[in-house]
Amino acid sequence: MRPISITDLTARRRTIDVQLPVELGVMTVTYRPYNAAIEKKWLETSVLDIGRVEKLAIQLADILLSWDVENNGQTVPPNKETLVQFDAQVLNAIFNAIIADMTPQAPKELRVNSGDGS
C-alpha cells in the first residue's frame, strides 16, 4: 500500500448532479470539498452587512470550480458575479446538494449522485 500524498488529499474534487427547481431541471457542478480555510472565509462572510442571498453566492463561489451553465453557447464562470443573479431557491438547491454530498451520514435518499462512481 502506498502512502497518501498531501497533494491528493488537498486537491480533491467532487462532481455531482443538482436537482434545481422543477422547471429548470438538473445541473452538474464540480466543487472543492469544504475545509478549514473555506470555513474561515465563510465565517468572515457571515458577519458582513449584506443580504443572505449575496452571502450564499459568495460562499458558493469559494467552492464551485465548474458547472454546465451557459449563455449563448459559452460556459459561464461559477463566480460571485454570476451567482448573485440567481434566486435564493436555485442557490439553496446547489448549496444543499453539496452539503448532502459532503455529509457521509446523510440518509441515502438525500445524497446526490456523484460523478466519480461513488
So how many helices?
5
* Count of all domains: 1
CATH topology: rbstp2171
Globally, the shape reads globular
- Overall strand count: 5
Integer average pLDDT: 86
Instruction: Provide the CATH architecture.
Output: 2-Layer Sandwich
Report the biggest beta sheet as strand number plus sense, adding barrel if it closes: 3 strands, antiparallel
User: What's the end-to-end separation, in Å?
Assistant: 21 Å
| SSE succession | HEEHHEEEHH
Task: Give the class from helix and strand content and strand pairing.
Answer: alpha+beta
Distinctive features:
118 residues; rbstp2171; three-stranded antiparallel beta sheet; two-stranded antiparallel sheet; 5 helices; globular
Overall description:
Helix 2 packs antiparallel against helix 3 and helix 3 packs across helix 5. The C terminus is likely disordered. The chain has 118 residues and is of the alpha+beta class. A three-stranded antiparallel β-sheet has the order 1-2-3. The protein has a two-stranded antiparallel sheet with strand order 4-5. Helices cover 40% and strands 17% of the residues. A hairpin with a 2-residue loop joins strand 4 and strand 5. The protein has a single domain, classed as 2-Layer Sandwich (rbstp2171).
